[in-house]
Amino acid sequence: MFTERPGSAVYSWGHRNPQGLAWQTGSGVLYSSEHGQSNHDEINIIKAGVNYGWPLIEGDEAGSGQSEAELEQPLLHSWEETWAPSGMAFITQGPLAGQLLVASLRGEMLLRVSPESGDQPAFVQELFEEEWGRLRNVAEGPDGTLYVMTNNRDGRGNAGDADDRLIALKPNWE
Q1: Partners of 42 in the beta sheet?
Q2: How far from 76 is each of 2, 7, 58, CA to CA, in Å?
């Protein structure tokens, strides 16, 4: 088993295919989005010296031959669906402040992840499903504008004349 060592280049391990990283505003907690092998895509909270289980487990599977305490479970996972999560960002303004937005390639949607808070468990809401095709990244501008980048010209999506593009969602909250 790996243990933290000063100066080690290994922070955590057992990640299958990390796609996005985002620091939670205020807490400094690091989140990642990861592809599962064919489903069980994950949203993880990354901690130093922790094994996230790949290739022994995906999603909420129990470990094979290792104690559950040694393998970190994801915050959320896609079960039998495939999100193919990609870039992500914590939102700092407006009604989505404190929420994590995650671009989804295969799922062709934006995922709104509400992190755990007190006794409230984390949950996911699907936004803009199949409106723009495969979504590669999401970011928040200084004025609260959300920028969403499509990724349909990589041979996996259905590219249209206007792809790939950067979509600006202007805030209209009062």
Answers
A1: 34, 77
A2: 24, 31, 11
Q: Are 100 and 92 in contact (CB under 8 A)?
A: no
pLDDT tier for residue 162 given thresholds of 50, 70 and 90: low
Query: How far from 149 is each of 29, 33, 55, 74, CA to CA, in Å?
Result: 24, 16, 30, 26
Tokens matching residue 112: 């709104």
Separation of alpha carbons 24 and 45, rounded Å: 10
- pLDDT confidence of residue 33: 96
Q: What is d(CA 139, CA 87) in angstroms, rounded to the nearest whole number?
A: 8
Whether the model clears a pTM of 0.70, i.e. scores above it, the answer is yes
Instruction: Kindly report the number of other CB atoms within 10 A of residue 55's CB atom.
Output: 9
Residue 60, pLDDT > 70, answer: yes
Q: How far apart are the first and last CA of the chain?
A: 52
